[in-house]
Amino acid sequence: MKNQTIKTTIFIGLNDSETGVQKFDTAKYVSILKNVCHSYHLAFSVQKIEGGYFHENGVYVEETTLALLLMDTPEDVVIEIAKDLCAFFHQESVMVTSSPCSTVFVKDDLWEEK
After folding, report:
1. In sequence order, what are the beta bridge partners of 102?
2. Smallest Cα–Cα separation from 13: which of 81, 75, 83, 85?
3. Which of 83, 76, 85, 111 lies closest to 30, judged by CA?
4. Beta-carbon neighbour count of residue 111 at 10 Å?
5. How confident is the model at residue 114, as a pLDDT?
6. Is 97 left (phi over 0), alpha (psi -120 to 50) or beta?
7. N or C: which end of the chain has fewer CB within 10 A?
8. What is the pLDDT of residues 72-89, one digit of tens each?
9. Alpha carbon distance 81, 25 (integer Å)
């Protein structure tokens, strides 16, 4: 059975907004995201991606970015998390996207008793 859900992704760059350099190993940032999601009791997925964008001042940068995927998380909680991550990771901004999606949970019944 399909369920309609809202998929939200928070994109967090890892380069420091002032120095333009990533301060810590990517694994440390992933660990922080895991702790944040655990403290909010949220299921999540994290993906490491490479990206490029323009700062507000027009300077183009490329950097490692983490994409934090959340399902059916209330918008106010998403914004709270995004603001915290923006401050903690010392970013000019983080990007939040959301869209409706269908989810289906598929189970393998090979191990069920017949």
Report:
1. 4
2. 85
3. 85
4. 6
5. 54
6. beta
7. C
8. 999 999 999 999 999 999
9. 21
